[in-house]
Amino acid sequence: MFGVISAVICGLASLFLYSQTQSNSPAYIQRWFTDQNSHKTLSTIQNEPCPNAPFLLPSQGLIGLLWNDPAGPYNIFRRHSGIDIFGDGDSGTVPVYAAYDGYLTRKSNWVSAVIIQHDDPLHQGRKIWTYYAHMASKDGKSYIVEDFPMGTQGVFVQQGTLLGYQGEYNGNSLRPIGMHLHFSIVKSEADGSFKNETIVGNTLDPSPYFGMPLNIAQKPSRPIGCRS
Ligand SMILES: [Zn+2]
Fold first, then answer.
1. C-alpha 69 to ligand 1 mean position (Å)
2. Which structural domains are found in the chain, ordered by start?
3. CA dihedral 12, 25, 95, 211 (to 10 degrees)
4. Ligand 1: centre distance to CA 5 (Å)
């Protein structure tokens, strides 16, 4: 029995360690949270879409975890479905904006998240969604602006509309998360509703939408900027 348990523990430890070697994100995130002076040099400050790209970066800060990233708390079998932008400032003060024109929905039990449906600017005739999460305090005080209360359905918003502010809310999970925005581009089901965003296969590589290297396969250095 003990042999089995230690084999499982060894297996998980090697999975974790191997996953970390497939990403360059942990070192940047660690620097961000241990060295305040790093914030200026690691932040992506982008107030308009990159040249020839449709989407506006929804918030400013260190683009830490990338799309398809296996870095902790994820691993090579359960990869990150979006990008995490770690803002510079206190919880509830770093603004989050709509990446593109679309129709905003906030389900009746969504404390910290909104989702917006768009006509896909890169694939004519296809509907996609952009998802924005963690916009509440640790204990669940929402930072989403009053215009979009729980239960909002299909309200038109323009690119750049203020949605709320970065927070640290992680549901009922005891695992603390540093303040950030989790953002992902989500595929539609056949009936037009959005797919389960937590599965990376249900999401799209955000790189072409932003004109930035946001896929971990390229292990881009930070801060990430527009593709030249
Ligand atoms: Zn995330």
1. 10
2. 2-218 (2.70.70.10)
3. -120
4. 31
